[in-house]
């Protein structure tokens, strides 16, 4: 192998190694970030007991409320979920409301909604397709409407596109409205 080919091969190998490190770096950082988060189930038994929950004040505060079977442990079904894998969204969304689905047909009838006064009051508004049930179709229709309303309100120059400036302004407006609603709820709750 000639010296120029040898140096070319070394340069190619070095650039491949550097590229490999660059690709691996974000994955390593992500893994390190996950590992740095405190793990709830310290003893890896698949449940969170009262002692494990005590290290997390918000969870400890709600432990008795979440422990549905009162066995002193929170199983996976009893724990609040931050992701959407199980379709739960805290006290919002269809996940929590689906507990009202007593006949397990995947939708909530007006009779089932009557068990929760706030839901019963809003039933007609939430039943977008007016079929007498709250289901995925209603939720998807409401979300499509909300997205279109947000887009139209954010696209201030009406060019059919949202610029970064328009997005930032729309996002800031939505966050301010959300904070006002939260403050109003806290004021009413007191």
UniProtKB/TrEMBL annotation:
Keywords: Signal. Residues 64-84, 165-180 have a biased composition (Basic and acidic residues). Residues 64-99, 155-190 are annotated as: Disordered. This is EF hand. One of its GO terms (molecular function) is calcium ion binding. Pfam families: EF-hand_5 (PF13202). It comes from Solilutibacter tolerans. Residues 85-94 have a biased composition (Basic residues). Residues 39-52, 61-78, 99-112, 121-136, 149-167 form the EF-hand domain. Residues 1-24 form the signal peptide. InterPro entries: EF-hand-dom_pair, EF_Hand_1_Ca_BS, EF_hand_dom. It comes from the Bacteria.
């Amino acid at each position: 192998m000639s010296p120029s080919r040898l140096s070319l091969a070394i340069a190619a190998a070095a650039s491949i190694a550097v590229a490999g490190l660059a690709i691996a770096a974000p994955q390593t950082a992500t893994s390190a970030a996950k590992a740095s988060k405190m793990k709830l189930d310290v003893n890896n038994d698949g449940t969170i007991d009262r002692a494990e929950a005590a290290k997390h004040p918000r969870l400890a505060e709600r432990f008795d409320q979440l422990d549905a079977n009162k066995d002193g442990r929170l199983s996976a079904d009893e724990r609040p979920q931050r992701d959407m894998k199980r379709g739960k969204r805290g006290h919002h969304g269809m996940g929590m409301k689906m507990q009202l689905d007593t006949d397990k047909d995947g939708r909530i009838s007006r009779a089932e909604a009557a068990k929760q006064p706030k839901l019963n009051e809003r039933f007609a508004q939430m039943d977008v397709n007016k079929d007498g049930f709250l289901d995925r179709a209603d939720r998807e229709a409401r979300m499509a409407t909300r997205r279109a309303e947000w887009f139209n309100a954010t696209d201030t120059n009406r060019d059919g596109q949202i610029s970064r400036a328009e997005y930032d302004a729309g996002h800031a407006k939505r966050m301010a409205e959300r904070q006002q609603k939260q403050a109003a709820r806290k004021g009413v709750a007191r």
